[in-house]
Amino acid sequence: MNLRHIEIFHAVYVNGSVSAAARALNISQPSVSKTLRHAETLLGLELFQRVQGRLVPTEDAHAMFGGVADIQERVRALREAGRNLRAGAGATLRISALPSLALGALPTAVSQFLKKRPDVRFDLQTVHHDDLLRKLYERETDIAIAYEAPRGAPLGQSWHGEGELVMLYREEDMPDAPPRVELSQLAGRPFITPAASGPIGHLFTNELERLGLDLNEVASARTFYIAAALVRAGVGMTVVDNFTAAAWMAPGLAVRPLKPSLTFDINAIHLLDRPPSALAIEFLAQLNTVIESE
């Protein structure tokens, strides 16, 4: 199938009839019918059956639609980029970030950057560490803001700041908390472990092993945001990154840094054959400033 076949198939599938597809594409009904028949001949499959005046997708059509819809979206994005270039509009920065950064530091950096560069558009999304490599390879994003690149992958990265693990807790659960908390002081208290939350969870687990500590783990959270929500609900206390803690601060909650401190790097990760553009580098400098201020 070529792109024209895909476009026709998508239009008929979504609109439910040849006439509606023709109107959506602003072409003739015979053209839609002919292209659809040609696609079925090439595939050796029947894609639609006529039932009470409507074209009903076959099981083969349903199986194909997910991939076709993805291609259509990419074609639409390409056409939009072309229109923007012809109209003199600015470039689009496609950036993904871990949830702890995407819901705090990243929006702040975007807001500040747009005050200087209002012609720029952003395509933003969250990404979990395990999905980072796929999003880069499948061109869903150009840059991923994360803590570290997957090991062994042909990726480039640049350092853009540092984060720190902190204790997040309800003030009533530890009213006498010192300015910096040793992990040993959490022993015996209900604790929500972030051990399964990617590289930073591993950093925390390694520190527990180094200290030979066993905490009273009442729940395990795979994301820092779940851990923070459990703290707010009164389940226990937890250790999260400072960005998540800042985003979840509310009356009755408190944060303390750890003693000794546990820090981690924040990197912009990209494919080796697709290094950041000059515009992306300019934005990452703005993100640096935001991260340093938090």
Explain what you see.
This protein starts with a helix and ends with a helix. Strands 3, 4, 5, 6, 7, 8, 9, 10 and 11 form a 9-stranded mixed sheet that branches. The chain has a two-stranded antiparallel ribbon with strand order 1-2. The chain has helices spanning 3-15, 18-25, 29-43, 59-86, 99-102, 105-116, 132-137, 199-211, 224-232, 242-248, 278-293; strands spanning 48-51, 54-57, 92-97, 121-126, 143-146, 155-170, 190-193, 216-220, 237-241, 253-257, 263-271. The chain is elongated and about 80 Å long. The chain is 45% helix and 23% strand. With 294 residues, the chain is of the alpha/beta class.
What is the average of the pLDDT values?
A: 87
**For this structure, what is the CATH class of the largest domain?**
Alpha Beta
Q: Note the beta-strand portion.
A: 15-25%
User: Domains counted in the coordinates: how many?
Assistant: 3
| DSSP summary: helix tally | 11
**Share of helix, binned:** 40-55%
Give the secondary structure arrangement, pairings included:
Blueprint: H1 3-15, H2 18-25, H3 29-43, E1 48-51, E2 54-57, H4 59-86, E3 92-97, H5 99-102, H6 105-116, E4 121-126, H7 132-137, E5 143-146, E6 155-170, E7 190-193, H8 199-211, E8 216-220, H9 224-232, E9 237-241, H10 242-248, E10 253-257, E11 263-271, H11 278-293
Parallel strand pairs: 3-4, 3-5, 7-8, 7-9
Antiparallel strand pairs: 1-2, 5-11, 6-9, 6-10, 6-11
For the structure shown, list the relevant keywords.
294 residues, alpha/beta, Arc Repressor Mutant, subunit A, D-Maltodextrin-Binding Protein, domain 2, two-stranded antiparallel ribbon, 23% strand
